[in-house]
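Q: Could you fold this chain for me?
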Amino acid sequence: MIAGHFGLAAAVKAMEPKVPLWAIMVSTQLLDIVFIPLLLTGVETIEPNEEAGYGKAVIHADYTHSLVGALLIAVISSFIAWRVWNRRSAIVIGSITFSHWLLDLLVHRSDLPILPGNSGERPLLGLRLWEHPAASGAVEISIVLLGAVMYFRSVVARSGGHTLHGTAALNKAGASLRRAYCTGSLMAVLLILSFVTDFFG
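A: Sure. Below is the predicted structure, expressed as structure tokens.
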């Protein structure tokens, strides 16, 4: 669901243009970013499962991808965004960080604990959409396409927000519009490529 996370980030950027794109993109992957050092040190693990279809692994991310752990990471990222930017950015960053866990809940097998370290051995969560590759792929490409369209429309709309007169002004407006089309198209291509590598890789 890597591409799906990025697609959601593009959609959020379209709605919240003042929040830096890099911050939104990092936030949507923050749980996985924190997961990497824990994976490398053996604190969290990935168990291959070749027979399982899309997402051929059971992930034991009992800290970063626990419900409480994800909320804690979201709160910390929100606090940092508030200190660096403002309250609205903090809400956006915290929400997009926690959205990673919500999307993972949809696709993961039952491998998401409620408490960090699966304390108390409570039932593991996951709606198991990964076990149905066509369905999970359809959901992910839908999120990707929605994000691509919203982002494209947003950058194009922002490029033509002023009424300009005179040849120089019109040339400047035309150049701005061309940049917006290029930027929006590049984002769409990157999102679709991320889906292709995610789904078929």
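A (continued): The chain has seven helices and two strands.
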